[in-house]
Structure formats: C-alpha cells, structure tokens
Amino acid sequence: MNNAIKELIYDFKYHQALEMINDEIDGNSLNLELLSYSVVCSYIVKELLSQEINSLSIFIKSDDFDISKNKKNTKSLAWMFNQLIDSIDEKGLILKEPIDEVLLQLENFKKSLPKSIDIDSYVNKFNGYLLKAKRDITADEVVQQQESKEKNPEKSLVFDDKLSPKLARLFKKIELCMELSNQGRIFESSLFYKDIQEKLKNFDPVLYFPEVFIPFYRNLSKHYVKMQNFIDNSQDTLEWHIAEQMYKSSPEALVSGGQIYQEDNFNNTHEMSNFIRENRSILPKLGVIDEEGFSRITLQTDNEKIEKEMPEEEQENRMETDDFSRHAESFAEDAEKDNEENNDYAEDEFEFDFDSDSEFG
C-alpha cells in the first residue's frame, strides 16, 4: 500500500494520495513511512502542518515505533523534510495556520526523536524557513499598521487627568491642532502650530510639572542656605571636581556609596586646594594645576623641557636666533668698551692746562 501512495506522490497526485493515506490511518495501519507521506500531502493539499507533525511525534514516542530500523526511519524522515523544503523553494511557504503553532510542534518533534536518528540538518533548514516567514509576517504587519495610522491619523490624545492646568492647556491645544489638521484646515491649524512651537521653545518644566518641583523645592528649603554657601565656597576645589566626575558617571552610585568626604578630611583638602590655587603648584618643578580643569600642564619656565618638545625645525630657528642675539650682545659690549677707551684717550690727549693758559692772559 505504501508503494502505491508513493507512486501517486511522485506523479503529483497529492489529493488521491492523501485520501488513500487517511483510509489507511482510519484502519489503524500506522507506520513511520505512512505518517511521513501524510505530512507532505497535508501541507501541499491543505496547507496545514501542525496536526500531522504532532501525530508523527506521538507515534515515535509510542511502543508501535520500531527503533531498530534506524536506517529506514532516517531515510523516511529525511525524504519528508526534503519534499517540504523543495515545495517551499518552488512556491514559497504557504500556511493556513499560525506559524508559531507549527514551530511549537516541530520543537516537540525534535525532542521525540531518538539520538540514533540524525536528521538535524534537515530539521534546522526547515525551521529556518519557518522563522524567516515569521519575521517577514511581523515586518509586514508593522508596515500595515504604519500605513493604517497614516491613512487614519489619531483624532485625539489620551492623557492622564492629573495634569497641571498649564500642561493640560498645552495638551488641549495640541489636540485641537490635530483635529484641524485632520479636517484639512491648514490656516487654522497653522495658528495653533505656531503657538505650540513658541510654548515648546520657551518650555519651563517648573511651570508645567508643579507636582514634581513643588515637593523638590520644599525639601530643599530645609538646607537651601547651607547648600548655596557650600556651592559658593567649594565648587572650585579639587574634592568638588572629583565628586562631580563621580556624579556625571553615575548619580545613583554617588547616592548609594555613602558620604564621600568627612568634614575633617574635607577641611584638610580644602586647605590644600587653596594652596594650589594661590601658588599654582603642587610641588616645585612638578608642574601646576590649571585653575579651570585641575589638569597638570608644563611649566613655561623650564626652558630645557620646552626645547625638547619643540619641532626640530623650530629648535634650529631658535638656536640661530640665540646665536644672533649673543653676537649682537658681544658686538654691543665691544663697541661700548671701544667708546670708553676713545673717551679716555681724548681726555688724556686734549686735557687743558688752565694754569698755562692764564700766563698768556
């Protein structure tokens, strides 16, 4: 009987083959080869798979399944998946049932197989077709939903009743603007839109979310003066800079990590910060702390280090300039020395004898 069914399948007479299969199953004449034919014909004729795969799994786990015929069983199941894959390659995957249900039954089938039957490559390939089809369907649904929204835009907003009057007023204007836009009233909706944009441009969260900021400021009022004094006196210190980096990295960790600086330690480091700001140095010749970013920079008075970091061409130019300066200074010194000698000579050579001159008077 199985050979007759197989011939009908090879002749593409799937309807007749399926009728003959159902007659055999009703007569309780079950075997793995017959159920494999049932899976293939049911998919091609009815475009259904889950129930047939489930029946196959139940049979494999039953006592009627002959596990000793490993080679024959493997050949029948491999043929079944090859037929399904060939049909999908030719016509694409066509199902009249949810893909998730087929995937579930396929997973149960894999669990029912004995380890001696190795058809993982076939099962995984078929499973891949199902997963790809599922992804495509999901993508199509998203596109359809988006197109539906574009054709039928939202007519109103849904928002909580517990809104501040100012925020509720803004939401109402947005809702009215959407309604005008849906009606195609461009002029009126433009008026609303311009006003809404101005509100958003000058948006002040304190005014629109008083339920958040009123408790916030009420809480701060207990220590506001101390906090402001602390900010004024400490925001330029090293310890503030370090804590600020921790805050930027993780505000939650800063809160849960406990107090960063004890008061005594803070005072000590505060004195060090004052020293650094006044002297612009931690230790002599080790660099300075930049006042803005507390970063180490090179001492500009260290000529050797500056020259070392200069480009080679710039160093040569600087050496030529230094040589010229030294020659100029030497020339000036020689000229000054010669000038002094000439003055001395003139004084000795042309010194007037006032006593002799008086005789000729």
Instruction: Estimate the helix proportion, in percent.
Output: over 70%
- For the termini, the CA-CA separation is 169 Å
Catalogue the unreliable spans.
282-302, 349-361
Which shape, going by the Cα principal axes?
A: elongated
Percentage of residues in strands: under 5%
Number of helices: 18
Biased composition (Acidic residues): 331-361
Region (Disordered): 304-361
Biased composition (Basic and acidic residues): 316-330
Report on this model:
The structure is a single chain. By secondary structure, this protein is an all-alpha fold. It folds into three domains: 2-148, Serine Threonine Protein Phosphatase 5, Tetratricopeptide repeat (Alpha Horseshoe); 155-204, no CATH class; 223-297, no CATH class. 73% of the residues lie in helices and 1% in strands. The chain has helices at 2-10, 14-26, 32-46, 50-61, 70-91, 99-112, 120-151, 165-182, 186-201, 205-208, 210-220, 224-234, 238-249, 251-256, 263-279, 303-309, 312-349, 354-360; strands at residues 288-289, 296-297. Strand 1 (288-289) and strand 2 form a beta hairpin. Residues 282-302 and 349-361 have low confidence and may be disordered.
